Amino acid sequence: MTAQLNPRGDVAVLVPAAGAGVRLGPGRPKALRLLAGEPLLVHAVRRLAAAPSVHTIVVAAPAAEVAAVRDLLAPVAPVTVVPGGAERQASVAAALAAVPAGLEIVLVHDAARALTPPEVVESVAATVRAGHDAVIPVLPVVDTIKEVDAGEVVLGTVDRATLRAVQTPQGFRRAVLSAAHAAAVDALTDDAGLVEKQGVAVRCVPGSEYALKITRPFDLALAEHLLTSES
Ligand code: CTP
Ligand code: MG
């Protein structure tokens, strides 16, 4: 059954899903690869649709897969599907252009973070609603991080206490995200990075281990394990 999105929700979520998934190895675009029998994108959209703040979901699909992605998601939730671009940033910009007027909170969420719990979506949205223009979910860094030179010789050890690993969904006041994209010159892998360049303060909230980005085969195996041991 198709989940109904909340007509009283105040949040649009953009889902860049147009990447190839090169690091996952040969196969279909990553968002369409199967995890426990269903495409990553289906897992991601189902969890977004379960977050009560979400009013609109816009997916940026691989250009050749737009019709297939519409059909795939129709039974999951009402979504808008647009063709993505060559870089993630272009895919986000294409999805942003399709957000209807009136929604002033916009979240950007990687399809590759397919198991992100709805609670993280709600927490990011609530923090934007509370007055923060840019919000990111983060985890503490557990490994010791070293800076190295081109010859793999250590230059120094970074103080781990001040580091955070950044996840999605990242949440923004709509005007702030639009302005950052309009001003973007070089492609960055995260939207908060664009907003930082505009001098906007970015607020951190706790992320989730389940929001891991499925990038390499190991991550897919881990996600499969998390899903099957959950139920
Ligand atoms: N993405 C996108 N458009 C692109 C590139 C990436 O919408 N041109 C999306 C991906 O589909 C993914 C998210 O951005 O949901 C994060 O990107 P990443 O994990 O790097 O995915 P891929 O680019 O697909 O993977 P790879 O870099 O290994 O090819
Ligand atoms: Mg990529």
UniProtKB/TrEMBL annotation:
User: Can you tell which superkingdom this protein's organism belongs to?
Assistant: Bacteria
Q: Which family does it belong to?
A: Belongs to the IspD/TarI cytidylyltransferase family. IspD subfamily.
Enzyme class at the top of the EC tree: transferase
Gene3D superfamilies xref list: Spore Coat Polysaccharide Biosynthesis Protein SpsA, Chain A (3.90.550.10)
Name of the gene encoding the protein in the UniProt record? ispD
Taxonomy of origin reads: Bacteria, Bacillati, Actinomycetota, Actinomycetes, Micromonosporales
Q: Which organism is it from?
A: Micromonospora fluostatini
The UniProt entry, under HAMAP family, shows: IspD
Protein name, UniProt field:
2-C-methyl-D-erythritol 4-phosphate cytidylyltransferase
Identify the residue position(s) of the site Transition state stabilizer. Answer: R23, K30
The record, for InterPro entries, names: IspD, IspD/TarI, IspD/TarI_cytidylyltransf_bact, ISPD_synthase_CS, Nucleotide-diphossugar_trans
